[in-house]
Structure prediction request, 594 residues.
Amino acid sequence: MNLSTSNATALIRARGLTKTFGARTAVDAINFDVRDGEFFGFLGPNGAGKTTTMRMIAGVSPRTAGTLEIFGSDPDTNGPHIRGQLGVVHQQETLDQELTVRENLLIFGRFFGIERKEIAERADQLLELFQLSDRAKDQVEPLSGGMKRRLSIARSLINAPRVLMLDEPTTGLDPQARHLLWDALQRLKRSGTTIVLTTHYMDEAEQLCDRLVVMDQAKIVAEGSPRQLIEEHASREVLELRFPEGTSRISKEALEGIGDRYERLAERVIIGCENGEAAHARALEHGLAPESWLVRRSSLEDVFLRLTGRSLDE
Amino acid sequence: MSAAQIAPRRSRGLFSTIGAYLPHPTRWRHVFGYMVAVYRREWIGSVFSGFIEPLVVLAGLGIGLGVLVGDRAAEITGGVSYVTYIAPALMASQAMQFGAGEAAWPILGRIMWVRIYHAMVATPLKPTDIIVGAILFMGGKVAFAAAFFAGVLLVAGIATSPLGALAMVGVSTLTGLAFAAPVTAFSVTQKTDQGFAIIFRLIITPLTFFSGTYFPIESLPSWAQLFSWCTPLAHGVALARGLALGTEIPNAATHVAVLAAWTIGGTVIASILFRRRMLK
Prediction:
């Protein structure tokens, strides 16, 4: 694992960061750096320890062991100061339904001790940026899921944070709302905001992250840019063979030699290879009769599969 | 990295621990301001309905029970009419109901359903700032409602001294806080609202009858009197009645001290429990 030692521009720096709840270890001695201006991701299935890590960074979950520095100081002792420079978007909605869209921003800005006039100006800019200006005076409740999520992100930016933290920002959104949100996040990144995100969506991590760590069962199992991770841990192409009746009766011998490696899932066999078409031809020679098949480029999903032997949605 | 290399987390020093629980000198007012914004639309209505009920009770009991009590009223009340006797006590007891109610569902809702407190602890606000701001807002709401009640008493001629009425508002506010703070401490530990039924049915409502609201506390058996004096309402009633009737209030300082102790003790415990719930 490539740990850049004493990186002067690391905004967040964790070494041996650990969190236990009773006998359960939620985060197990992880190391990572988040650098100034980058889009950094924690990718992993539910329960991998991503949210707990985010909570520790945000200073709302005291760590059990290890060191954690945010902007050079310890959230244990300097919590309010650090939180003043963070923007946090929770996985579950935390908007006040009894306030209007704009009021949600105005009130939240006050929690940071910002002057009313400054908050009002910023609120209007943010509503504009997130395409909510025409809903400014509306109650929150009738807004769509995508709008609520955009409002949550707008609210988290009211203090002009140095780092924006997003916990599963597109979970539950329809594809169009996801793409709108991705665009907004890309714009934000270009304007210089450092963004930390957790996700269990491969395409999201691939689309957005400059660098990411893959988490599984409380540990970091890989680190790098999406391209690096794919090059390092997956083959160029992937052949997927689908067997609706199950894959358990297919013999090991039949699967070996089709590609560089294979993973057997419940109803699919995933074969990593240089050339998917050629691998398919070999699969037929081996006597395999999949109901359907497809060839695609390797993705982070395959990296995850390779590293953990499980697919993300299992 | 092997386990031996992982730095154990330093434990906080005593001062740092206490510091974590002390409210910031000014940040609580942002929480107060937030509550004002939420209730701005509905709060006249809620205050109005909250105090219409005791006014109806006052009219019903004062006139109805007043007739029944008849000439004996003077023995109990020391010479004033029964309405005049129970009015300040009803004001204190309504402050209790109001304070406790504000500390129940609105607090639990912001933890469990609206979840805004989860967003608030991720700002520079400390959990203690949130609790202090929320409880002070409850006090403000009780004061507002009590002022309305006192106004009605003045207009109806039941209260005669504006200064006394103002003092009654103060006492009612303190009584409301003395319930709001400990009920908040209870609310922050709850996962559903089922516990509130117990609090209200078994503690809050019965207390009205054991605190000298409708009849002097001295007519209770001595164990019940002792119990009543341990709870805040009896002290609030004694103060409010004394102020309304302009009579001397024995142990006034003690009454105020007990109300203050419940308020401060409840706030401290609520802060500790809320912090424990939100930061884990």
Observations:
- The longest helix of chain B spans residues 127-155.
- Chain B has 13 helices and no strands.
- The radius of gyration of chain B is 21 Å.
